[in-house]
Input
Amino acid sequence: MSGYAYGQWLRALATLGEGGRGAAAKARKWRAVLDGISAGRVTVGSRTPVSGVPPWVTVEVVHGGFATGRLLAEQPLTGHDRARLRAATPGSTERERQNLHFLSDDGQAELLEALKSGTYRIDLPEEAAIPVAVALFAAGRDQEAFDLLEVIWPWIDRLKFTPTFDSIAVPSGDAVRVRSVGSVMNTLKQVTVPAQIAAMRETLTVWNPRYERLVALWARTVDGALPSLRDGAVVGGWPCTRWPDDWAEQRDRWLADLPGPVTGRHAHPRSNFARLHAALLLCPRDSSDLGPRQVGWIRRALANALTTPRPVEPVESSTYADIAARMVERLRAYPLHGGIPAVEPITADLDQPAHLVTKLSRALDAPAAELVRRGVLTSSEAIAAVLPQRTSRLAAGRIADPVLATLHERTYTAFRDRRSLLLLNLAKQVQFTELPWVVADPEPRPDDGSARRALRETVDLVLAAFPHTITPNPLVTELRALARLADLDLPLVEEVAADIFMGRFTDKWRAAAVVASRTMRDTLYAHYYDLPTSWPTPFADLCRDRALAAGAATSYVARNGAVLEQSQILTTHNLAVLVDALDLAPWLRVRGPDLARRALDWIARRASQRSPDRHAALVQVKNIAYAWRQAVFFLSFCPPDEQRALVQRLADQPELTHVVRGLEYVIAGGRFGAAGSAPGGGRRLVGWVEQPAYWPGVSRR
Output
């Protein structure tokens, strides 16, 4: 494991040399991981990775689930925090003094007032600990408060157990928000005009008008017809043959109007602008200081300019940076830590480039479905990131005490921002209920059906918006939380990384597979993937046997990947469990054809793309196989004629010839052989395979 961390550190250092954004911080974090592992302070694969630190403490985690050893709630006081401390407050550290202040009579009164008014922010779960204790004291639940303080007391001098006092606006109902107003403002402030566009605009708006005036100034010195070009030769009158009375004054005014050194194409020393400008500097009153050759160059420059007039080039009234700056100004009317109810007041009377409106819409308080429609939520992972806001409100709605309910809501949202750890030996991530300050309500309100509706709406949205992707782990976590609120005990399973798989599964995998076999019995999915109808064989053994029969690779990681893929096939990776629990079959019989079509279209696009290297090709094959499994599942809810018509959409994809033949064979009533082959060269599509010929034109190279 430390080898991976070492490689990441080297990559961060290489990026540092290239001037990559955030490279220095990334390199420091990976160095901290390596130092922690080397010193024995950090244990990779443990749910308590930092020595001596309990699981409820939030640790800093970098990509891949590695802990750096830093405790995120161990942070210095801000200047505002220090100003609040009273000289008489006890404590061995500033942090302890602040924590103890809010346990004093005055501090509790101050904190309780903020809790009642909602004027506080929980950025890390630990920041809710003392507020919960104070709320318990206020509710007469003293023993629970003392028990909580006893647990956190060893850390009272190090960790921030108090919130940030701030006026914030949180979404309500089914609305969610991707980013706060302040965060979106910072993003919009980073919108700049590319150097090439800036130079072009400067030429058009600054130098071209001055060029026109410069040509006109010299044209006034021509007696007779103005110079022009005829067959490449200069014809017409000569400059410097007459000098209007105000010419010197106009010349001085033009020079005084120059904003600085000439830039852009006009700065070239052989440009018309440069020649006329240089001559102007030598003629304060007339051309007495010019030689015949120099006058000839003035005549040539005038002929060039007057014979082929420059087309008028349009100038956009506002750049993207201008529009973004206007948006930022209008956003100042909203709370920095809140959201916006609509984008129209911000975009009114402005050009509305789609990418800037999308950036702005990240601060919009709206249902997830609306944010998907606006292109703000572009993946299942993005939906999973905002879903805790809704889950937390549903959970808080079952708590009678309004202060504890709001605390619960904000603590849950902060907790879901914790990054997952890399875990081994079937260890579970730290659960929200393991936080000592997550207390049970003595008289919880019964569920009124809201949680089940939210679960159903979320599943419908994810399947409809992203039919080609499996449920990512963060989404599985939230679906499980919603299911529990709805009093549903669902065996939802996570995706396991092939490089850390230990060869074992917990009981929920087998439970999910049993549901899948029952729910999908006698469907296209069951026939295509040969689902078992009974389960005498242990789940892990069956996955290994099926992977070997399909032609699993011999390398450790690829062999693990093949076993894990079979686990996803047998469980449908949560699809069957959700269909069964939420009675989605009628909905899928209506929506299934569209979902299958879109999944197959994604496969066709992806299969036609060339991968830049072998690793990218392997990832491509895996993702296509996973999307194929989704498509087969949706096809299972379509009539046979529609199944055949939808699969025919891929008939002109040479990369998919073998797997299309295989699927058509099963639709027609056939069954694959033990190794997943069918007559006519048909194949069952799986992603972790050894044979190079399996993916002609797409496979391992």
Q: What stands out?
A: The longest strand covers residues 66-71. Strands lie at 59-62, 66-71, 120-121, 164-165, 175-176, 228-230, 233-235, 366-367, 677-678, 682-683. The chain is about 50% helix and 5% strand.
